[in-house]
Amino acid sequence: MKTPVPVLRLPRGPDHPDSRGFDPSSPRFQALRSTRGGAAAAAAGLPELREEQQARSLLRQRYLRSLLAMRDAQVRFRMYERVHVEARFGASDIDVLNFQVSDLQTPIGVQKEALLRCPDMISYSLEL
Amino acid sequence: MNEWREKKPQEWRRYVNNEVKVTAHEKQECQGWVFTVDPVSASVVLVNFQDTGRTCVTVVMGHAVEAVEILKEGGPEMEERLSSLFMPTGHHGLTKQELQHRKDSLRVWLEKNRIPVVEEGETLRVAGVLSVDPPYGPQDCSSSNEIILSRVQSLVQNNPVKM
């Protein structure tokens, strides 16, 4: 009797359209393109970029803290085409491309859980 | 890619703590004190302190920003008010002696665990790759190496000396 051969599935390569990595035409790469050059050069240890990295880390830390403070808060989102929605904020991905929200109140009903694409938003606001 | 997103972190830094008017897509305007500009998405975090004592936070996404105009410079008072906004409760309630005690106790605890610690003013530098700022809790550790960060944070958490 022949032994069955296991099917070997390779992970998706970096050039796949849904990949999260290195394909220069992927949405993730496009969104991050402006931030890549600086980081790489700073890693090389150029002194004038130290200051840039310091400013970057201060600004980023403050932004991440503001996201932390938003957790479980009721947030109003202003989207394109004058669409206004409200939801309870859950989390964001590191690139600020998607927000996870709960109880999204849309014009056609309430969606229990949803992902909002940040490129679709103009602004969001909340009260503390 | 608009002009605002092309700016460098130092240029964004100059807007922080100032009152600005942001013009976004479709000529929508927002006004407020700049808390920060996210260097990844270029989104502007605006804060408005209301008379009722509540704080209104509006964030304009970087890709929708068309123009940012500085209206008023914020003094040191505003700087203090803004930076205390989202920060953890911090060490406001602790005296100098208490902070010194916390720092010494942490240094002794880390050395006991054979981890090299150097004091740099108020900051403790751990093995040259991590720093602990006052008030020396697990949330005050910062490092670019997340493995070291989580190891040291759990060590700080397990410090047997009550802090």
From TrEMBL, chain A:
Residues 1-26 form the SUZ-C domain. Residues 12-21 have a biased composition (Basic and acidic residues). Gene3D superfamilies: 2.30.30.100. Residues 1-28 are annotated as: Disordered. It comes from the Eukaryota. One of its GO terms (cellular component) is SMN-Sm protein complex. Pfam families: Gemin7 (PF11095). PROSITE patterns: SUZ_C. One of its GO terms (biological process) is spliceosomal snRNP assembly. This is Gem (nuclear organelle) associated protein 7. It comes from Scleropages formosus.
From TrEMBL, chain B:
It holds the Pfam family Gemin6_C. The keyword Nucleus applies. Its main location: cytoplasm. It is found in: Cytoplasm; Nucleus, Gem; Nucleus, Nucleoplasm. Residues 69-163 form the AD domain. The keyword Cytoplasm applies. Keywords: Cytoplasm, mRNA processing, mRNA splicing, Nucleus, Phosphoprotein. The SMN complex catalyzes the assembly of small nuclear ribonucleoproteins (snRNPs), the building blocks of the spliceosome, and thereby plays an important role in the splicing of cellular pre-mRNAs. Most spliceosomal snRNPs contain a common set of Sm proteins SNRPB, SNRPD1, SNRPD2, SNRPD3, SNRPE, SNRPF and SNRPG that assemble in a heptameric protein ring on the Sm site of the small nuclear RNA to form the core snRNP (Sm core). Part of the core SMN complex that contains SMN1, GEMIN2/SIP1, DDX20/GEMIN3, GEMIN4, GEMIN5, GEMIN6, GEMIN7, GEMIN8 and STRAP/UNRIP. Part of the SMN-Sm complex that contains SMN1, GEMIN2/SIP1, DDX20/GEMIN3, GEMIN4, GEMIN5, GEMIN6, GEMIN7, GEMIN8, STRAP/UNRIP and the Sm proteins SNRPB, SNRPD1, SNRPD2, SNRPD3, SNRPE, SNRPF and SNRPG. Interacts with GEMIN7; the interaction is direct. Interacts with GEMIN8; the interaction is direct. Interacts with SNRPB, SNRPD2, SNRPD3 and SNRPE; the interaction is direct. This is Gem-associated protein 6. It comes from Scleropages formosus (Asian bonytongue).
